[in-house]
């Protein structure tokens, strides 16, 4: 699963419980990537994507 924002419960579940389950079922290399809102760079990526995807949306839905 992917999350754009974090919460302590989710971080604990991913970092600990999912890793344990992964290894228990034969997984060898588990990687936990911090949530995107953990850095200014990550937030810049989100802003870029949102602005790109919403560009012109409001103008396109106007009913004058």
State the oligomer.
single chain
Q: Supply the number of structural domains.
A: 1
| Secondary structural class | mainly alpha
Secondary structure tally, helices: 3
Q: What's the N-to-C terminus distance?
A: 42 Å
Low-confidence stretches: none
Could you explain how this protein is built, in words?
The protein is elongated, with a radius of gyration of 18 Å. The chain has one domain (8-60). Helix content is 56%, strand content 0%. The protein has helices at 8-24, 40-54, 57-60. The protein contains 3 helices and no strands.
List keywords for this structure.
64 residues; mainly alpha; 0% strand; elongated
Summarize the structure.
This protein has one domain (8-60). It is built from 3 helices and no strands. The chain has helices spanning 8-24, 40-54, 57-60.
Q: How do the strands and helices of this protein lay out in sequence?
A:
Layout: H1 8-24, H2 40-54, H3 57-60
